From TrEMBL:
PROSITE patterns: ABC_TRANSPORTER_1 (PS00211), ABC_TRANSPORTER_2 (PS50893). GO terms for molecular function: ATP binding; ATP hydrolysis activity. Gene3D superfamilies: P-loop containing nucleotide triphosphate hydrolases. InterPro entries: AAA+_ATPase, ABC_carbohydrate_import_ATPase, ABC_transporter-like_ATP-bd, ABC_transporter-like_CS, P-loop_NTPase. PANTHER family: CARBOHYDRATE TRANSPORT ATP-BINDING PROTEIN MG119-RELATED, GUANOSINE IMPORT ATP-BINDING PROTEIN NUPO. It comes from Nocardioides seonyuensis. The lineage of its organism: Bacteria, Bacillati, Actinomycetota, Actinomycetes, Propionibacteriales. Residues 3-239, 255-499 form the ABC transporter domain. It is found in: Cell membrane. One of its GO terms (cellular component) is plasma membrane. It is a peripheral membrane protein. Its main location: membrane. It comes from the Bacteria. This is ABC transporter ATP-binding protein. CDD domains: ABC_Carb_Monos_I, ABC_Carb_Monos_II.
Length: 504
């Protein structure tokens, strides 16, 4: 199926999200849309998928103009979309999710689950997905859930597949597997639109690259171009892809964790008697495949886990057993791994989100009343400082692109007087220009003498930021190594193996 977009324009009030964008995607081609957060990539694809009506322009499939009134029309025409945040129902099985919205019925109107199971098996075997049709989605790893999304699209005979930031929540291994799946789909003759801002992925699979900036196409790029060339075209200026940081000026042991153990409600040990120290002016990065205790570790520090033993001390004072508010009041800044669930209130404005953890005290509140003039001045300043792409500070956080939502969270946490910063997946779903800025802010925090704990599944990020690296596997520390440890050694440690020269 050949896709042509001709002069697609979409406005939201006075904001022009896409400005006369035209592009073509051929069958058997992977066409990458590259651009910053808020550039208009996802809006363009939402127009294609029938989620938004275009204000101007045409959509053509195999030369015929299309008039979509909703996603159902787009799916009927052979378009499938794999969203950044999965559209799956956790308590349903794989088969039930795949047939949802296109329910096949058998005798007396009963659901034909057998047909859905067979369809899942057929597609799974064709592309080597190895998925149990009867497995509950909530029991599947994130990478496997994404394959279920792909099966959903293929089960409806999609000939054009749109992947919208598909690797934002994947581990490096799962990302590699997805790249291989995309190549298989291409070889099967599918047309693929791949939306991303990760330069390594673009160069790995793209046949053609269209770069969008501020709602406009600014050019096509050669997949063989260097990362620096692609980043410059995407952002509109030279971008530093290397984190420049001086030697750590280490102070005393400011943050000390001893014999920490976290057990879930079912009795499963998620963090298994670990001990480590972060010194003032140091970045300790936690590496590991997602699901090896990183989430439970940060939540235990923040007072979000119920069954915790051991000691968590900041500046000599015990944090374990304190409420979340008291942990925050102790000077802990927290960038959570899921901004939508734990970082923001999507129905609140940007300004309201920027004062969330200080909504009860100075400078934003005096004698029980919000000082709106102070809040507006602060929010305006942070909007500019962190380059949050939004209409104004009264825009709802839920209206922002994922990367701009992340910048709001980072701006809120780093604008406080911190004694400890915990940054979990700080640049997940963020473009190269914003990554450069966030990394500089984290290093600046460390250079002010603040201990920093960074949790990331991105080895490039870990290597860029870390003074030391702690690798977790199944809730245990495999080892704590210098920040310049080779990727190959770290990758081996992430599988649970400990090289001979690494001490636990």
């Amino acid at each position: 199926m050949k896709l042509e977009l001709r002069g697609i324009t979409k406005r939201f009030g006075s904001v022009v999200a896409t400005n006369r964008i035209s592009l073509t995607v051929e069958p058997g081609e992977i066409h990458c849309l590259l651009g910053e957060n808020g550039a208009g990539k996802s809006t363009l694809m939402n127009v294609l998928y029938g989620l938004y009506p275009a204000d101007e322009g045409e959509i053509l499939l195999d030369g015929e103009v299309q008039h979509f009134t909703g996603p159902g029309d787009a799916m009927e025409a052979g378009i499938g979309m794999v969203h950044q945040h999965f559209m799956l129902i956790p308590v349903f099985s794989v088969s039930e999710n795949v047939m949802l919205g296109h329910e096949a019925t058998g005798f007396a109107g009963t659901l034909d689950l057998a047909a859905a199971r067979e369809r899942v098996r057929e597609i799974s075997e064709r592309f080597g997905f190895h998925i149990d049709p009867d497995a509950l989605v909530e029991d599947l790893p994130v990478g496997v859930q994404q394959r279920v999304e792909i099966i959903k699209a293929l089960s409806r005979d999609a000939e054009l597949l749109v992947f919208d930031e598909p690797t934002a929540v994947l581990t490096p291994q799962e990302t590699d597997e997805l790249m291989e799946i995309m190549r298989q789909l291409k070889e099967a003759g599918k047309a693929i639109v791949f939306i991303t801002h990760k330069l390594r992925e673009v160069r790995a699979v793209a046949d053609r690259i269209t770069v969008i900036r501020l709602g406009k196409v600014v050019g096509e790029a050669d997949p063989k171009a260097t990362n620096a060339e692609l980043a410059s075209l995407m952002v509109g200026r030279p971008v530093e892809l290397v984190v420049h940081k001086g030697e750590a000026q280490l102070g005393e042991d400011a943050f000390v964790v001893e014999d920490l153990r976290v057990v879930d409600a079912a009795g499963h040990v998620n963090v298994d008697d670990i001990s480590f120290t972060v010194r003032a002016g140091e970045i300790l990065a936690v590496a590991g495949v997602q699901g090896n205790g990183q989430t439970e570790l940060t939540e235990a520090i923040m007072g979000l886990q119920d069954h915790v033993t051991g000691s968590i001390r900041l500046d000599g004072k015990e944090l374990r057993g304190r409420s979340v508010r008291k942990v925050l009041d102790a000077g802990v800044g927290f960038i959570p791994e899921d901004r939508q669930v734990d970082g923001l209130v999507s129905s609140f404005t940007i300004a309201e989100n920027l004062m969330l953890n200080r909504s009860f005290k100075s400078p934003f509140v005096r004698r029980g009343a919000v000082r709106f003039d102070v809040l507006r001045e602060f929010a305006d300043e942070k909007l500019k400082e962190y380059d949050v792409r939004a209409r104004d500070i009264d825009s709802e956080a839920g209206e922002l692109s994922g990367g701009n939502q992340q910048k709001v969270v980072v701006a809120r946490e780093l604008s406080r007087d911190l004694r400890l910063l915990i940054a979990a997946q700080p640049t997940r779903g963020v473009d190269v220009g914003s990554i450069e800025f966030i990394h500089k802010q984290i290093v600046a925090t460390r250079d002010r003498g603040v201990p920093v704990l960074v949790v990331s599944t991105e080895l490039d990020e870990v290597a860029a930021l870390a003074d030391r690296i702690m690798v977790l596997y199944r809730g245990k520390i495999v080892g704590i190594v210098p920040g310049d440890t080779p990727r190959e050694t770290l990758g081996l440690m992430m599988t649970g193996e400990r090289p001979k020269d690494v001490v636990a």
